[in-house]
């Protein structure tokens, strides 16, 4: 099946619009990751910051505090439903592959766990490059390799066991999980001074139901596709995921420890 970029984006937008407030609540479990990305970006007063694939604006909110009233932080996302969760922030609903900003508009660009969702990552990275100042900095995070991200791959494994292949082909969200591959992608899009560091993130769940709901609350397009299944099939998935979670059992539930890559790079 050939890949349809427009159909993929439409599904992702619909999914993230659907889960807006729930995504905001669920993303609190990833506060450690957000803090690491903000630290890597080396924000300072008076800077202009673009938070791309912002979702409900968690990074944009932290950036707003860091740059102060003399700076500016903009939450930018393809999903208006996500941006509706942060009405007090400067916002722009836009496709990251065609940003509505002038060249050299920003001192910093943040992209937390977002690059994997751009069908054409090189176009997206070049757009980020275009709107960065020559002395600016890009700070982004991506999931590691599938085997190192049970937080996501456990649910995907369950779906692969119980469901036929998806009708909408999805780029792998783990395709930048190899640091060498991420370095190559950034360099080919015109970045230098690339630094990539792994971060290990552990999240606990009281039971399989809590894990499955947590996945749905963060999964965007995948959650949208699952919502269109018959109720019986949805329930079967929620029940079956306990089998995939078994290796991660601990006293009181499950603990899933995953690897995220945090990268910084400067435009050439």
Layout of SSEs?
Layout: H1 5-18, H2 20-26, H3 31-41, E1 48-52, H4 58-67, E2 72-77, H5 80-83, E3 90-93, E4 106-112, H6 121-131, E5 132-143, H7 150-162, H8 179-188, E6 191-205, H9 208-216, H10 221-227, H11 231-245, E7 249-250, E8 253-267
Kindly summarize this structure in a few lines.
The protein is of the alpha/beta class.
Strand content: 15-25%
Please give the CATH class of the domain at 5-145 and 168-201 and 259-267: Alpha Beta
- At CATH level 2, the architecture of the domain at 5-145 and 168-201 and 259-267 is 3-Layer(aba) Sandwich
Return Rg in Å.
18 Å
Mean pLDDT: 93
Keywords for this entry:
268 residues; alpha/beta; 41% helix; Rossmann fold; 8 strands
Account of the 3D structure:
There is one protein chain. Helix content is 41%, strand content 25%. With 268 residues, it is an alpha/beta fold. It has a domain at 5-145 and 168-201 and 259-267: Vaccinia Virus protein VP39 (Rossmann fold), CATH 3.40.50.150. Strands 1, 2, 3, 4, 5, 6, 7 and 8 form an eight-stranded mixed β-sheet that branches. Helix 7 crosses helix 11. The N and C termini lie far apart (37 Å). The mean pLDDT is 93.
